[in-house]
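SEVERITY: medium
COMPONENT: batch folding queue
REPORTER: lab tech (J.R.)

DESCRIPTION
The queue accepted two submissions in a row. Attaching both inputs and their returned structure tokens so the on-call engineer can compare them side by side.

ATTACHMENT 1
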Amino acid sequence: LIVTGVQTCALPISNPVGTITRLCIHFLQVLENEISNGIVSENSYNFLGLGYYQLGEYDQAVSLYEKMIRMEPDNGQHYLQMGECLEQSGDKDEAEACYEKGYSNTKEPEFLLRLCRIYMKKKDYDRALSYAKTGEEAGEDTRQDFIFMNIIICERSGDYQGAFDAASRYTGLYPEDERGQKEYTFLSTRIDQ
């Protein structure tokens, strides 16, 4: 059963996968109709974008998120969702630009983590480390994630000494973290002591 701003609909469930797809398509049509008629609930655009994403309709989702960003340029969620669509569609450069703009407008550290991952995939480890350092300096709430990201970036780049140094620092700050302890132990076998 789906309830939106003005419509309620029920579809029979005999083939769960096919029904879910049909249900999703029907739900998107209801939302599109509501939006075109000016009947927009607070989450209509967001649900519509997520629906397009789930169906792999990334271009439509991106177009919708662009509208949402114009309406609310300081809402980081719109940039994150649009960037995810761009990544899934294979457009890493546009995703990168989206995350950079999202960080510029919101200063939310999640953008920096995503940029680190993009640059690691591109094997641009210096830029990935630069974003990790910015994230580490951004605040106490996310510092642990970014210090750990330093370990991973250095390790993937083949800089085992840098990774070990970062792991030593990490385990000193967060001694109870098992993943940090595992990285420290592994990296201690990769360097000359």
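ATTACHMENT 2
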Amino acid sequence: ILGASSLSSELISDSVVKSASAITLFDLEVSEIRLDHLLRHWPFEKPESLRYKPQTYEGKIALDYIYGKITWEQAHYHLAEMYKMSGQLNQAVREYQALSKILWFEYEPMMFAGDIMLGLKNYSQSKQYYFSALERSLNQFTLARVGALYFEEGKNDSAIIYFNRALGYDDYSHSKFLKEHRAKILFHLGRAY
């Protein structure tokens, strides 16, 4: 047991804790709805007029999740796509971070977050996400993303290595690149040479 003297006297701000936890608006809405449902059963007797009614799109998705119409993963992926389409890219990344905390074995959330950062030309953040995806699954999709990152940074020697590895993996993998994606990789590979 830690004594009071061994604990740091510095307080951690809520924003730091929230950032590390990857809690999203959807998750907060789910907790509000669940709390509301709990308070409507014995021994609580709050009036019906005080029921929590979600007003946001995230709240409506949370209701679908609570009622079993969609899974937690589907909700987060759906919201990430919606945020991307509406230009709320930081919110989309946050959804992918939430997914990666729970689905720690899946490469896609980190890869998709890396795609957003690459589109924003935030190469250092993109690299972190892509290499996290690569650690989770060494496959042609993650290798191609790292190749694209290096190509964008002008590191053509590294891009060539990763593009060639991606194409090699694709040749022997049961899941394949779409023809247009393979053509795009070959195009960028040619430009890198």
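NOTES FROM REPORTER
The CA atoms of residues 36 and 42 lie 12 Å apart.
No errors were logged for either attachment.
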